[in-house]
Amino acid sequence: MTSTLINDKHEAGIDPNRAFVLHDVPADIDQADIEETAETVKAFGRVKVRDIRLDTQTSNSLVLCECRQDVHPDRIPPHLQPLNGGSAWKISLFVESASPADDFLAKLNKLMEEEGKTVNDVRAMLSTDVPRENTPESIIRAVGDLLGKAMRPTSENNAFRCLRTFSGHLPTPAGEESFEHWLEQARLMIEECDCSVREKRKRIVESLKGPALEIIQAVWLNNPDASPECYVEALESAFGTPESGEDLYFAFRSLHQQHGEKLSDFLRRVERSLTKVVQRGGLPGHRVDRAHIDQLLSQTSCYYS
């Protein structure tokens, strides 16, 4: 019966990218009710019934429908709940969903275009000491390394010369950074800047005022040789999130790419979230790479036009 509808679709000149079949539709339902129910799926848009055939095996109908816009399989539910109640109708499409590999490659190409990079840039990040794999995992790892390098300021541009101001006041005053953003930059400065420990302490102190500065002054009075890491830990204890490592890990696993969000921005959000998870003990260090890859492969879900 479905094959008959397929033939009818071709004969009627219906675009397969804009057609679908509804199964298990009650035989006594009006065409207008079918169209109204189908239009509850926003991805279909306006729907028109093109043919109805009785399925002798179930005594229900198979309904060939056409919509005004191309159907994106990943946006269509497998079943449709009738507005008037009753059993759900199965939805069959004439176009197939993109495979995970095809979907990933499309997103990768979009990312490369946005970041001004090429696939050769990604390949160059893959180790030459091991066989190169064309798996999504290996490419994701290379993309992460590539973005990591792009996000790290070079010593020539003096990006770490001054941290943005942080006082600890809420709401965050104009011209100041929130604690999360300040903390991210401070940790990056400590890890990446090749200046002395004394200079790192100085840059942290120069960026602080108000309650935040008072905390660091107390740390210095207690231990004049306290490391920059100790300064940051003291501030995090006072102003950081009260969430546990487990809570942060759950939030990390719940991340998903927002509609319209660039893949590069999503990758940065994932990286920041995962860093906080590890810092709070929510994930062992040896599991970071695996968690990073799993999250990117499972949660990258934005659709590009």
TrEMBL record:
Signal peptide: none annotated. Residues 166-301 form the Paraneoplastic antigen Ma-like C-terminal domain. PANTHER family: PARANEOPLASTIC ANTIGEN, PARANEOPLASTIC ANTIGEN MA1 HOMOLOG-RELATED. This is Paraneoplastic antigen Ma-like C-terminal domain-containing protein. It comes from Seriola dumerili. The lineage of its organism: Eukaryota, Metazoa, Chordata, Craniata, Vertebrata.
